[in-house]
Every structure is written in C-alpha cells, then in structure tokens.
Amino acid sequence: MKSVISGLAALMLTAGAASAQDDPFAWLEEVDSPRAMEWVQAQNAKARARLEGDARYQTYLAEARAIFTAKDRIPIPRLRAGGVDNLWQDEAHPHGLWRHASLSSYRSAEPQWRTLLDIDALAKAEGRNWFFHGADCLKPAETRCLVRLSDGGGDAVEIREFDAAAGRFVGGGFRFPEGKQDAEWLDADTLIVGREWTTGEVTTSGYPYVLKSVRRDGTATEVFRGEKTDVSASAIMLRGEGGTVDAVLVNRGVTFFESEYSLLTEAGPLKLPLPRKASYQAYVDGRAVFTLQEPFDGFSAGALVGLPIAEFKRNPTSAKLELIFQPNARQAITETAETKGALVVALLDEVKGAVDVWRREGGRWASKRLPLPKDASVDLVSASSKDETLFVMTEGFLSPDALWLADAGAARAETVKTLPARFDAAQHRVQQFWATSADGTKIPYFVVSRRDLKLDGATPTLMYGYGGFEVAETPAYRPELGKIWLERGGAYVLANIRGGGEFGPAWHQAALRENRQRAFDDFAAVAKDIIARKITSPRRLGIYGRSNGGVLTSVSMTQNPQLWGAVVIESPLIDMLRYHRLPAGASWIGEYGDPEVPEDRAFIARYSAYQLLKPGVDYPEPYITTNTRDDRVHPGHARKFAARLEALGAPYVYFENTFGGHANATDPELNAQRWARHYVYLTQKLMD
C-alpha cells in the first residue's frame, strides 16, 4: 500500500485538483471499499504500535476509563411523565440503559431506577450495533414515545414507537426504517414526518425536504415540499395548554443559516414575518419565540422576539413581532427553554454564563435572574411544560459539574447533585487574557495553569479552538484533561476566536465565507500572545480541534507550521474544495462558501489545507483521527490528508475508529481509549 501512495506523490506536489477524477486519493472517499479499509487497517496498526505501545498508554487508559465509567457520575436528567429519564452507560452497559425514576427519588443519593430499554440487550437480540439517540414522547401523558436508534452511532436513525409505561415497543406501531429523518407527534394517531419517501428524495445535503402527515393506519399525506437545493425541512409543534397543538410551523432550511418559517394552514403554508436569518427557540404564552441573526424591521441582530400566533392566524398582515430581550455587544444568547408559563434564556456575558427567566406581565416582558454561580458556564438541561420545573448544569475549568433544580416561577434554584472532583485542582488557576488579531480585533482567551507557573516558555500547553457556526466555547470541566494533562504539569488554553457565538451573531458573521481567514488569524494571535507572555513556546505548544475545528487545526498547521509542536486533527473537514460533494457537506455552504462558484472557490482555495500541503516544508507531525461511521463529516477528509502527507514524505499518525459516529463518544470504553491515545501523542510531542 505504501508503494501505491509513494508512486502518486509527484502528482500531489502540485496545487491539486478538487474533482475526484483528478484526485489520486479519491478512492479513500469510498468509505467501506476493501482497498480503503485495507489502508485504514494498516494505518491503525502503525498508530496502535506508536501510541498504545507507549508505556504510559495503559495508565492513561485506566484513568480515562475510571472517569467515563464512574458510578458516581451525575445521571443527566430529562423530565418526562412527572419523573426523570436518563441514559446510563458503564462497563456493563456500554450502549446504555434508558431508565426512569420519580423526581423525588432522583433527588435522593440512591435513586430507584426502572429500566425502560436495555440498548445492549436489544443490540444483541437483533444483531445490530444499536445506540440510543433519544425519544420524543407525546404530551401530556408522555408515555407513548418515538425512540430513535442508530446502528453504529451515526446520524441516520430508525424510529420506533415505544410504550414507556409498559416498557416495550408497540406491536404494529409507528416504525420507520433507517435514514436521516425526523418525526413529531401531531396527536395520538398522527405524526408529521420528514424522510426519504422515494429513492433520492433528499436534499443535496442528504436531509429530507418533503413532510407528510402519517396516520396510524399508514395513510400518508404530503403537507409540505421544499426544494432539493435546500438543506432540510422540519416540522415544529407549537403546544399550548395540556400539550394540545395550537399550530404547526415548518422550518424550511434554505441554507444552514437561512430559513423560511411558515404556518401550516388548510390553504397551504403561510410565511411568517421574519428575516431569513432567524432561529426558532420556544413557544410561550401564545408567542412563537425567535432569535434574529440579522437586523430586521427595527430590531438589531441578536434580538429575542415573539410573534403572537393567534393574532397572526386572524390577520397575518397586522401581527407584529414583540421585543423580549436585546443583548448588548458583549452578550450572547446561547440557548432557551420553555416551562409552563416562562421563557428561560441562557446567555453569555463576557464569555461567562447566566440564566434569566422571562414572562409576560401586564402586556410586557420582564425577567428575573436565577441565583447561580458567577464566572461559570451554564447549560439548560431539561424543562417541564407541565409546571415551572427546570434543571440547569453549571461548571467551570476547575469547578466540577453541579446540577441545579430551579423553580422558574419563583426564580429559585438549589443544588441537587454535584460531580466529585476528578483531579486535583487546588494548585491551579484560571486567567482570562486578550490577544490582538491581525486586523486589530481583541480576542479573548482563557489559560488554565498551575498557580506557580514559571514564565520561561517551558510549559507543555494544549490550545483548543473552534470558531464556527456561532458555537460559543465556554469554560468547561473536562475531567480527562485535568487528570491526564493538568495534573502532570500541562496547561490548557481556550481561544474564543471569531466564527463562534461568544458575542452573538456579529462575532460569527465576522469570519464567514471570504472572511474565514480572520478565524485562523485570531487563533494564531492567541498562540503568539501566550508565547510572548512566555507561558509556553512553539516546541511545547500543541493544538486540538475537531469537526469544524479540524479546518482550523489543519489550516493552522499549513499556514503557521513554525508555531506548533503538536497538532491533533479529529473528525475534520479538510478538503474544502470537495467538502460540498461529500455527505452532509452541502449543508455548510452558508458557512464556508460554494466551491462551484468561481468567486467562492478562489477564497476557499486559500484555506483548503489538503491542497495547500507543499513539499519541503517542516510540518509538525499531526495526529489525525476520525470514524468510519461518521455520516456527518466524511472520513475521506482525514484519510486523504494523511495519505498526502505520506506521499510528501512528511510524518503523521493516523487512527480511525470503526464505529461511533461523529460524536466519537457513544461507547465509554472506546471513548477512554480515544483520549488515552490523544494524550499519549501530546505527551510524546510536548512533554518528552
């Protein structure tokens, strides 16, 4: 196999073409072909020898395994049927137990769980590699559920109707074979389903664009049809008192960031008065709530607004949007939830979290802040539509996860569970600094290090960034990082670069498409800043990124090879001139641009690391890893990048898990192995 790749080296020393016909490594895009899998197995054998053969691997693996399979983890709650659901994975149940407990029992030290579905037993009985991807249960009783099962951990799922009260699948119930699909309850005997109804009836991104109303007797009636060029189409149920559907909205995803929202009526879809860059959030007090990602009708970008649905039904031309909340320039809304009578909003303020509870009082929206820790990240875990109950998780770099049970009505919150400390954080501290990017923009970043850090440039440092899709990266408690890396003297840096959502839509849009270089400049600026502060040096500085972060790390490796001693590239996008032709890739054209458009292709080519690899450059040796069953970001990106490095005679390490999907974390044992390999590589490159 090595001779095949070496023989093609000369062809790849040019700028490289984007078409599969001109790409000598295009055969690696054939996910399960014998030739490609032979290559993968050969690469895995070398990686295992290098990483798992290191004397430290077994120690790191034992530490990671103890974390991911610990019995004293917080069982993440999902409020359902007056109690709490949880998916529990451990050494005995790597695929998980879907289980249920009463709320009072859950709050106790030893909850009494009732198993609803044993995923491992189901997988064994059916000869499938099932993973649980959630359940949507019919309100108000929430005992009839649509269970989503993934064979291998990818995004494609099979949907089956499940009786949670009886703990079994419904004989003759709703069932849809595997695919990228979604189904929502309209009533006890009717679903709104989006799926591939006939062969090829999906968008160019691979998602459904035709929605049908499906009756229990199998009758299916089309209710909405988008365009094949769209990203997807999905239904949103606006449920009022008692779980009754007040209205059905359709989200037609025109691009990843542009949508048309319509109300389904007997006369056909009726468009809502919204800009294309708007995102549905919740349904509260008869208002469909949206965030605006662009200025519209007097509202600024980032605004949280509500549309009275009953009024819109009566007179679409007179119904007006209401302002609920307008974040300032250093704030961003990260997520929302709805309780019986309130809108719960999680936000960032200077990249630090808070939660506000909004409700309409006297015709106006007013808020109260939940009493939660300051300088922490917050996540809305689960909310009840039957009352004001809400679960919130808080965490920090050095503060273990704490689960809070809140009463949204009274704006009260109390801690109900806390994760035990997984590493010794007593000697560490967190600092926030600001770097100056190439265009003068100030970029915030966090440094987690020992209190007695010597500013001599010798500290092994791992730096992480993402910078895309308006995803905000916030302080998080990462036990494996603390145990394996921080306790051994390493430091950690989180770079809040543009492209993310730390400061709202403007921070994201500043690095879209032709402005993508700003994200890479920001990342390099943070690296140069920590080097200038003598926190670390290029010899001791490593970077890690996955998915869109794989664009970041692969480009950083090719643009600034002199800055890094180690580069971890996981589940990455890399061949940006062909990403749109690989499954799910077309959905991200709004983020990166369209390689089929000459003007777009010109700027994309400047950050397509696959084509930008050059002979004679002293690249840092990267660790490239992906998953065969990743049906979101195609494994061909990682494979081809490694193959081209080999053709150039450049060093690299490549490993590919054979199942687990894009998350790469579906199985706790495989996840422990994954992180053990990561940290062996980082130790070899930065600490040795």
UniProtKB/TrEMBL annotation:
Keyword Protein transport carried by entry: no
SUPFAM superfamilies: alpha/beta-Hydrolases, Peptidase/esterase 'gauge' domain
Pfam family name, one: Peptidase_S9_N
Domain Peptidase S9 prolyl oligopeptidase catalytic: 485-686
Protease among keywords: yes
Domain of life of the native organism: Bacteria
Peptidase S9A N-terminal domain ranges (all copies): 22-414
InterPro entries (alphabetical): AB_hydrolase_fold, Pept_S9A_N, Peptidase_S9_cat, Peptidase_S9A, Prolyl_oligopep/macrocyclase
Keyword field: Hydrolase, Protease, Serine protease, Signal
Signal sequence range: 1-20
PANTHER family the record matches: PROLYL ENDOPEPTIDASE
Protein name: Prolyl oligopeptidase family protein
Source organism per UniProt: Phenylobacterium terrae
